[in-house]
Write a structure and sequence with these properties.
Length: about 190
């Protein structure tokens, strides 16, 4: 739109949140209230799904993209105990001990985060993510750099409507932008509130 201030660059990562998914018996998906994951260091999500190519008549007779979402890594300062309980299925005892069981049932999440820009932060949402438990590692302290934790993430298309991701733009309405981390954005709720 003419006159709209637009980002020329993006940088940084902040405001990483997760919202636990509940799937009903009928396949309906609902999201819990987003919870912040402090200490975001970096996120790298590579596209998943290759170009489909069908050869005929000695040419690429038919080609089409195959969007299977994204997969990658979220690096954070440390994995919060709340995330371990909510998402990874670890149990916190009354004595304050975290227990990981091979039988733990992990939960899918929506992942929300933002990249800073020279004008305004762009807010992102991955709708249907699976998270693998992090590795255990540490090193003897010989510098001022603390350890970090990596979470492997697969962001698949949502099974009920194939949505993968969304993000804000320069023309995103203020109400939607300001409420990004209060409730997982759904197009239907935007239509209902209009």
């Amino acid at each position: 739109m003419p006159g709209e201030a637009r980002n020329k660059v993006e940088f940084g990562l902040r405001n990483v949140h997760y919202a636990v998914i509940t799937e009903g018996d009928d396949g309906a998906i609902t999201y819990g209230t987003p919870t912040k994951i402090p200490g975001a260091v970096s996120i790298t999500m590579d596209k998943s799904g290759d170009m489909v190519r069908f050869k005929a008549d000695d040419i690429d007779y038919y080609t089409a993209p195959n969007n299977q979402g994204y997969e990658g890594t979220l690096t954070i300062a440390r994995t919060p105990d709340e995330f371990r309980s909510d998402v990874l299925g670890e149990e916190k005892t009354d004595g304050g001990v975290m227990i990981e069981s091979a039988d733990a049932k992990t939960k899918r999440i929506a992942l929300l985060f933002e990249f800073q820009g020279d004008v305004k932060a762009t807010r992102h949402l991955l709708y249907y993510c699976s998270v693998d438990r992090p590795s255990i590692s540490s090193t003897t302290k010989d510098s001022g750099d603390p350890n970090t934790t990596e979470l492997a993430i697969v962001a698949s298309p949502r099974p009920d409507n194939n949505l993968v991701k969304t993000k804000t733009t320069e023309t995103t309405k203020t109400q939607i932008y300001d409420n990004w981390y209060k409730k997982v954005y759904e197009k239907e709720s935007e239509i209902e509130s209009a």
